[in-house]
Amino acid sequence: MVFSGYRALMSTTPIADLALVSDRHSAGLISRDGSAEWLCFPRFDGPSVFARLLDDEAGHWSIRPAVPFETTRRYLPQTMVLETTFHTGSGVVVLIDALLTGPDDGGHRLGVGVPHLLARRVSGLGGEVPMEVDYRPRPEYGLIHPILSVVDGGVTAHGGAEWLVLTTPVPLRIDDCSGHGVFTVREGETLHFGMQRSTLQETPARVWDQAELAARLDGTIAAWQSWSSLHQAYDGPWCDLVHHSGRVLQALSFQPSGAIVAAATTSLPEWAGGERNWDYRYTWVRDASLTMSALWVAACPDEASDFFSFLTTAAPSLDKDRALQIMFGVRGEHDLTERTLPHLRGWRGSRPVRVGNGAWNQRQIDVYGELLDAAARLERQIGGIDDDVRRFLVACADTAAERWTEKDQGIWEIRGEPRDFLYSKLMCWVALDRGIALAGLLRAQDRTQSWRRTRAEIRDTLLREGWNERVGAFTQSFGSDELDASALMVPIIGFLPPDDPRVLSTIDAIAERLTDDQGLVYRYRTADGVHGVEGVDGLAGEEGTFLLCSFWLAQALAVSGQVGRAREAFERAAAFANDVGLLSEEVDPGSGELLGNFPQAFSHIGLINAAWAIDEAERTARAGGAA
C-alpha cells in the first residue's frame, strides 16, 4: 500500500491497519502509516490522549516519511514491540514502537514499575529519507487542547489533569496546540522519541536523554522475550499463532490486578455506521472459564491464577438479591455507568461513542457457572483458598441452584426482554456440576445431595425445552426456533457426550445455517439483514460474523472427533488475523473487513482453545491408531 499526504477529515482508518502496544497498564494502537491513533493513560479504561480512531480531531502522533512510501510490519520476535519498515524511493527507515515496561526480572512480573511512556525509535537502514513528525495530544477524549511549550530537548503539554512531556531530538514548530517538525534520516542513524504522562500530583513526567530512552526500549524488548521464554511451552499445531495470542492476552491484562480487558478500545462498531458500539475496556466474569483454558495453554498457570484471584477479589459477595455482578473495572470497580461522548463523530460515523458499559448491572445467571468452572480448572492452584473465597464459591453454586429458572439477558447481553436462554441454564448446570466436583475443597459435602437433585432437574429441562425437534438443534432460548452459536458449548463443557446425535445435529445446523459465504459463524441472526429494523436483541441494524463463535465451531468439531472439518473451520477464522496477527471481534460478511473493538481478547481466547482441542483430538486419534 502506498501512502502520500494526510487523509480526509473523517476517521476512516481500517481496523486491520492497527497494531497494539501495551505496558500492561495502558494500550495504544499504531496505524500502518506510523500514527498513534489511540492511547489511554494511565490505564486501559482511562481517558484517551490520542483518539483519532474515533474522530480526526481527537489527537494523534505520527512519525512517517514525508514522501510516498510502502510499509511492512511485524512484532519483534516473542514481543509486543512493533516494527514498521518504510520503503521509499530514496531509502528505507524502520520505526520501533513500544509502551515501556518495567525492568526485565527474568520474565516473572512483566509490567511492574512502568513509566507510562510511549517510546519510538527511528533508524535509517539505507539511503536517506525525509521524515515528518505531527504531534497533536488531545487529552480527555479530545475535549482538551493543551498548551504546548518548547523546553530543552522536548515539548510539554498541560491542560486539565494531564501533564505530558514529549522527548524529541527534532525541533518542533508549535502552532494551534500542535507540534510539527521535519528531519532526514540517513543510513546508520538512530533517533529516539518518547511521550511520558503524569499528573501534577505524581512524579512529573520529564524529558529523557537519548541513551536512557534507548536502554529502556531495549529493556522492554528483553522483558517481553524473557516472559515469552519462561511462560510459553505449547508445541501443538499453529504454535506461532497460539503463542502470539497468549502475548496478546498478556498485553490486554492489567498488571496490578490481573484483570484482562475484553479489548483495548471503545465504540469500534459491529457494523459501520451503526449503533452497536460498546466500551470493552473492562473485564467480564463470563470470560473466566474460557480464559483459564487459554492461559493454561498459551501462557502458564500463574497468569490464570492471577485472573482468578482478581475475580474473587472484585466479586467477594453477592448483592442483596443474591446476584453476582457480571463485569468490573480493571481495579475491581463496580459502577461502570455508561455515557456517550457526543463531540466525537465515531469510526466511519458510527454513533454514539460510549464510555462505560450499561450491561454492568444486568442480571445474567450464567456467570455462576463460569466462575465455578474457572475454579475447577485451577483446583490444584487454589487448594489454599481462604474461608471467604470458599464461602463465596459455595454461595455461587447455591445461587445457581436457586435462580436457574429465572429469565435473563443471556451471554450476548441483549437489551430486549429477558428470556429463558439455553446458555444461561446450561451454565447453571455447570455451576452445580463443578460445585459437586469441588465439594471437598469447598467443604460443602453437606450440599452435594441437593446440588445433584437440582443438576438433574436442569439437565432434564434443557433436554426437554432446549432441544428443538423442528430445527434439529439446541436453540437460543426455550420455545425459540432461532439458532445461537452458544449452543456449541453443549459438548465443549461436557453437558452431553460429543458423539450424542443431538450434539452432532446442532453442530451441523450451525455450520450450515448460521454461517456466511466464507464459513464464518454469526452469534445469531439479528434482523434478517434489514438496517434500522429492531432485531431479536432489541437493537436496530446488523452485525458481522463473530470470530469467537467461528473458533467455537472448530473446537466443537474437534471435540466430536471431526478433526478434518475442525482444521478447516480453524483456518478459515485464523485467516482473518491482520498482518501482525491481531483479531477483531467480528468480520464484515460482504467485504471481509474487520469490525468491532480491537484487538479482541475473546477472539484470541477462541483461537487458543480451538487449537488446543484440535491438538488433543489428533493426539487421541494417533493413540487410537497405535493401539
TrEMBL record:
<dbReference type="InterPro" id="IPR012341">
    <property type="entry name" value="6hp_glycosidase-like_sf"/>
</dbReference>
<dbReference type="InterPro" id="IPR011613">
    <property type="entry name" value="GH15-like"/>
</dbReference>
<dbReference type="GO" id="GO:0005993">
    <property type="term" value="P:trehalose catabolic process"/>
</dbReference>
<dbReference type="Pfam" id="PF19291">
    <property type="entry name" value="TREH_N"/>
</dbReference>
<feature type="domain" description="Trehalase-like N-terminal">
    <location>
        <begin position="11"/>
        <end position="169"/>
    </location>
</feature>
<dbReference type="Pfam" id="PF00723">
    <property type="entry name" value="Glyco_hydro_15"/>
</dbReference>
<protein>
    <submittedName>
        <fullName>Glucoamylase (Glucan-1,4-alpha-glucosidase), GH15 family</fullName>
    </submittedName>
</protein>
<feature type="domain" description="GH15-like">
    <location>
        <begin position="251"/>
        <end position="612"/>
    </location>
</feature>
<dbReference type="InterPro" id="IPR008928">
    <property type="entry name" value="6-hairpin_glycosidase_sf"/>
</dbReference>
<dbReference type="GO" id="GO:0015927">
    <property type="term" value="F:trehalase activity"/>
</dbReference>
<dbReference type="InterPro" id="IPR045582">
    <property type="entry name" value="Trehalase-like_N"/>
</dbReference>
